[in-house]
Write a structure and sequence with these properties.
By secondary structure, chain A is of the alpha+beta class. Chain A contains 17 helices and 14 strands. In chain A, strands 1, 9, 10, 11, 12, 13 and 14 form a 7-stranded mixed β-sheet that branches. In chain A, strands 3-4-8-5-7-6 form a 6-stranded mixed β-sheet, sandwiched between helices. The two termini of chain A are about 50 Å apart. Chain B is an alpha+beta fold and about 525 residues long. Chain B is globular, with a radius of gyration of 23 Å. Classes of the chains: A alpha+beta (about 550), B alpha+beta (about 525). Chain B: It holds the Pfam family Peptidase_M16_C.
């Protein structure tokens, strides 16, 4: 079975889609939920007879007090208050070996601690693609200290902990949420998981199955978004960096073995490419643990000289990736889903290190959109452009959503749209028109609304601990420091309509990237889409010839 | 789906569900109060955690008094206090201030479909729908625009005993959020044209609920377990009522139930209690607390009937089965033991990793013998009764086996559960409770529900104490009381030919030898 951990905690700012806030909350809970599934391997306790585990109190005397009355004998609590002086502060320290330790405190008894590594599918240029995908599935398997995944989970269970690994195109992230008193164990476990995995043949074989299963699932599931994202990256950055496949290609599954993995790990899992991040934990304590478990440790793959490190910068190429597929019956449940053709059109935006990143984020928010059948009250972006101009006007459109992917050296702003296969041409034109309109006039009201929504989305996402963790980790990994939410909010406030028009105009000069999935008989030529995007009104060129 | 997810569905994923384009409205489904406790419980966190951590000087958390004088138990509560005050009309205001830049504020009302009769069943749900359609002061478009412009989210849900409407917003917009809430709760416009338009939306939503077999299974379960009583009805009501309910019906429902003493204004996040209380006074001070002719609606006891209902349709791919015994009401202390029992049975989905290594023995068996696609336990509670049980989804050939092992697990709980098993379940439960309170919305919901149901918010410390006080003997005792040799209510939908006869299910509720 596949590792449970393929759910995604949201990437706060790096990859916002217009419904980001909702995803954010959901993902946090999913993480917690997945954790519930991982408390397991009870039999092992019995076998080893952990005597210390059998503590329980016999204080059943207060067991019959109704829940509406407080328990007697509980001392009057002294509650924590916000003292207002210490704002959310992120502390960063770099260890001698280059590893960065970042932390942030928060109310509550739970902490989230994890290791982020600057390694992902974009770094696999000189290796078979799919290594990161394998590593994600292999995470939290047996290590030097722990004989199996179950032992790891058993250890975590004692601190009510859950663990999770996610890889993306540019980052690998191992994270554990647990009771704060268990943080020492947690850090030691993390260090072991990251640096001393056994990667046994049996585990790799299991992973091959899991990867196969996931690939199958990816092609079957009714929601085509992951597949489209993969396709648009491949189209936009043809065969380089972030355009490399994030999911292991079928033909590579058997090529990846321990030797390949070790050679990759040796190059990329180095301390200078790592950040140990913690939320809900004291910086000093985290630092102490980091020194204890992550300093001077010899990883299982040895410390040979580094070679083959891929430092290439993303090259935007544009282009089209098409998958013709029968989508007439994709529903897995009893309710049928109408046959749809999915289309994603994207253009290069900018890296999250550039100043234009913020205007792009605002632009993405302003485009917004979602599914035409989505429920939800006011707050889901009912006044974003893709709702007002597209979904509300063209009732046959099934979906129109804007996404913004951003990396350290490039970015991609794209719109996903889906409709009946017979109306693909019309749909393409509607979307290209929206793109060209981005460079046009921006209303003050819609701009203000988008800015406010972006700010509130950011802040709401940062309510939950796993999200803060990821935000801290990613920012420190990319920049060595962390822009606090307040600073980001200030930057958002400064965005003007001129900024939007400027970045949009710049973006529209590029060739588009197009991903299309489903019945594509009505799909216009790539050149026509390109022409439409560079035209004033976004209209596809008209051809009247009968035999084209 | 796991318990956490279920409870949260209502809150967060609500916006993501497909519904109608016309509708643009929350999907406040008749989600039962399944596992509401799990959602409602948490706070304070873990256990001894903070007490062991010293050197907190530089933290953003600080204790009011010097730490040296705080006892161990006191330091456990290292989160802000939940403050509660009451307005003159009886409306309660409760909040927790975490100084976060965002907040959730909402009104929890002690009204739901249980207060309805055959004729107006669905009125509460209908009314909740119309709350998004504008007020006397704000037409629909203005309401939507106002909320969107401050980057806020408006949401709501209705269950059998509760109705909630809440807003998530930046903390600085709290005054506006409270004002909008008050407007939506008190001045909903109820225009005839909107009512007509909403009928079709409701009918469409009913179709969608029909398509969700889990939802159907739970509505069937209520229908059979509480047959002949108001709890047996659905929240959304029959389609006949959706077509015929009039403005007068809705007004009557509102006038009868939207009363100050049955409302809680709850908030969490960057919320100053004094400010909230004064806002509440200004905007909710006028909510009436008197009933016409002093006719206070009194809930009659809803009788539980052990019985079975099944809808066989062999064309459906999977069967949904729910089995439940009568559980206690909200306030009963036995709930703690039952929650531990449920946590011990756990939940399972075939997509979970772990397979036969799962710690719950039922999950292990399910995985090993491929008995079901997923199962989840539930403990749905109402004011005087509840449904304690298990719901599973399986193919048509495994129904009997799955039911057998599930019931055997219940019998094990009643007769032979060990301390070590209970201990594991206790840890899992505590973790679930803590993990749930991440974010202002779950906290706000916990406050709102807690104050409405218990009269106060039960702190996590208190839950921990209650859970710690349990041992295997107590769990066995409580399970004996509610499960052993009791008549279960059974609902089954799908290809359910294999479902055993009721008497056989009943006879597996006891063991002749153990």
């Amino acid at each position: 079975m596949p590792e449970v951990a393929n759910h995604s905690a949201p990437e706060v700012f790096w990859r916002i889609n217009s419904r980001g806030s909702l995803r954010g909350q959901a993902a946090g809970l999913v993480m917690a939920a997945a954790g519930m599934s991982r408390v397991r391997e009870w039999s092992r306790i019995r076998r080893f007879g952990l005597a210390g585990f059998r503590q329980y109190s016999h204080g059943t005397s207060n067991a019959n007090i109704p829940l509406s009355s407080p328990l007697p004998g509980v001392p009057k609590p002294i509650f924590a208050t916000v003292d207002g002086q210490e704002k959310f502060e992120t502390k960063v320290t770099t260890l001698e070996n280059g590893l960065r330790v970042a932390s942030q405190n928060k109310f509550g008894q739970f902490c989230t601690v994890g290791i982020l590594i600057n390694s992902g599918s974009r770094h696999e240029a000189k290796y078979p693609s799919g290594i990161s995908h394998f590593l994600e599935k292999l995470a939290f398997s047996s290590t030097a200290q722990f004989g199996s995944k179950d032992e790891i989970l058993l250890t975590l269970e004692k601190h009510g902990g859950i663990c999770d690994c996610q890889t993306s195109r540019d980052t690998t992230m191992y994270a554990v949420s647990a009771d704060a008193k268990g943080f020492d164990t947690v850090v030691s476990l993390l260090a072991d998981v990251v640096l001393q995995p056994r990667l046994s043949e049996e585990e790799i074989e299991m992973t091959r199955m899991a990867v196969r299963f996931e690939l199958e699932d990816l092609n079957m599931r009714p929601d085509p978004e992951p597949l489209l994202t993969e396709m648009i990256h491949a189209a936009a950055f043809r065969e380089n960096t972030v355009g490399l496949p994030r999911y292991c290609p079928l033909e590579n599954i058997d090529k990846i073995d321990q030797k390949v993995l070790h050679s990759y790990l040796q190059n990329y899992f180095t301390p200078s490419r790592m950040v140990l991040a913690g939320v809900g934990i004291e910086h000093e304590q985290l630092l102490e643990c980091a020194k204890k478990y992550l300093l001077g440790v010899n990883p299982v793959w040895g410390t040979g000289s580094l070679q083959d490190i891929d430092r290439s910068v993303a090259q935007y190429t544009g282009g089209i990736v098409k998958i013709e597929k029968d989508m007439s019956d994709v529903s897995l449940g009893p309710t049928p889903i109408p046959e749809l053709t999915h289309l994603m059109i994207g253009l290069e935006s900018c890296s999250f290190l550039e100043e234009d990143f913020i205007p792009f984020a605002v632009l993405n928010m302003m485009m917004g959109g979602g599914g035409s059948f989505s429920a939800g009250g006011p707050g889901k972006g009912m006044f974003t452009r893709l709702y007002l101009n597209v979904l509300n006007r063209h009732h046959w459109m099934y979906n129109a959503t804007s996404y913004h992917h951003s990396y350290e050296d490039t970015g991609l702003l794209c719109i996903h749209a889906s409709a009946d296969p017979r109306q693909v041409r019309e749909m393409v034109e509607i979307i290209t028109r929206e793109f060209t309109l981005m460079a046009g006039a921006v209303g003050e009201v819609e701009l203000e609304r988008a800015k406010t929504q972006l700010k509130s989305m950011l802040m709401m996402n940062l309510e939950s601990r796993p999200v803060i963790f990821e935000d801290v980790g990613r920012q420190v990994l990319a920049t060595g420091g962390r822009k606090l939410p307040d600073e980001l909010c200030n930057l958002i406030s400064l965005v003007t309509s001129n900024d939007i028009a400027r970045v949009a105009t710049k973006m529209l000069r590029n060739k588009p990237a197009v991903a299309a999935l489903g019945d594509l008989s009505e799909l216009p030529d790539y050149e026509h889409i390109q022409a439409a995007l560079s035209s004033r009104d976004g209209r596809l060129p008209r051809t009247y010839r009968l035999f084209r | 789906m796991s318990r956490n997810e279920r409870a949260s569905n209502e809150l967060t994923l609500a916006n993501d569900n497909p519904a109608s384009r016309v509708q643009i409205q929350t999907r406040s489904r008749p989600k039962q109060q399944r596992e509401k406790m799990a959602a409602s419980v948490c706070r304070a966190g873990g256990s001894a955690g903070r007490a062991l951590l010293r050197a907190r000087a530089s933290s953003l958390l600080s204790l009011k008094k010097s730490q040296s004088t705080a006892s161990y138990a006191q330091t456990l509560q290292n989160i802000p206090e939940t403050q509660v005050s009451t307005l003159e009309n009886g409306l309660r205001v409760a909040s927790e201030d975490s100084a976060h830049p965002t907040c959730t504020v909402g009104v929890w009302i002690g009204a739901g479909s249980r207060y309805e009769n055959e004729k107006n069943n669905g009125a509460g749900y209908f009314l909740e729908h119309l709350a998004f359609k504008g007020t006397k002061k704000r037409p629909q478009a203005a309401l939507e625009q106002e909320i969107e412009s401050i980057g806020a989210h408006l949401n709501s849900y209705t269950s059998r005993e509760q109705t909630a409407i809440y807003i998530k917003a930046l903390s600085k917009d709290l005054p506006k959020a409270v004002e909008i809430l008050a407007d939506v709760v008190q001045n909903v416009s109820l225009e005839d044209s909107q009512i007509e338009k909403e009928r079709s939306v409701l009918l469409r939503e009913m179709e969608e609920i029909d398509a969700n077999l889990e939802e159907v299974a739970f509505d069937y379960l209520h229908a059979t377990a509480y047959q002949g009583t108001p709890l047996g009805r659905t929240v959304i009501g029959p389609s006949q009522n959706a077509k015929t309910l009039t403005r007068a019906d809705l007004l009557e429902y509102m006038n009868l139930h939207y009363k100050a003493p049955r409302m809680v204004l709850a908030a969490a996040g960057g919320v100053d209690h004094k400010e909230l209380a004064s806002l509440a006074q200004r905007h909710f001070g006028g909510v009436s607390f008197q009933y016409e002719g002093d006719a206070v609606p009194v809930l009659t006891h809803c009788r539980f009937t052990g019985s079975a209902i099944q809808y066989r349709n062999d064309d459906l791919p999977l069967a949904h089965i729910a089995v439940a015994v009568e559980g206690p009401g909200w306030n009963n202390s036995d709930n703690v033991a039952l929650l531990v029992a449920n946590s011990l049975i756990g939940n399972y989905d075939c997509t979970y990793g772990g397979g036969k290594n799962l710690s719950s023995s039922l999950a292990r068996t399910s995985a090993e013998f491929n008995l079901c696609q997923s199962y989840q336990t539930f403990n749905i509670r109402y004011s005087d009764t509840g449904l304690f049980g298990i719901h599973f989804v399986t193919d048509k050939h495994s129904i009997e086996d799955m039911l057998h092992v599930a019931q055997a697990e219940w019998m094990h709980l009643c007769t032979g559960v060990t301390d070590s098993e209970v201990n594991r379940a206790k840890i899992a439960l505590k973790t679930a409770l803590v993990a749930q309170l991440d974010g202002t919305t779950p906290v706000c919901e916990d406050i709102g529900r807690g104050v409405l149901n218990y009269g106060h918010r039960i702190s996590l410390k208190e839950w921990n104490d209650k859970i710690d006080a349990l041992d295997a003997k107590k769990v066995r005792e409580v399970c004996m009381k509610y499960i052993y040799d009791k008549c279960p209510a059974v609902s089954a939908v799908g290809p359910v030919e294999q479902l055993p006869d009721y008497n056989r299910i009943r006879s597996a509720m006891f063991w002749l030898r153990f």
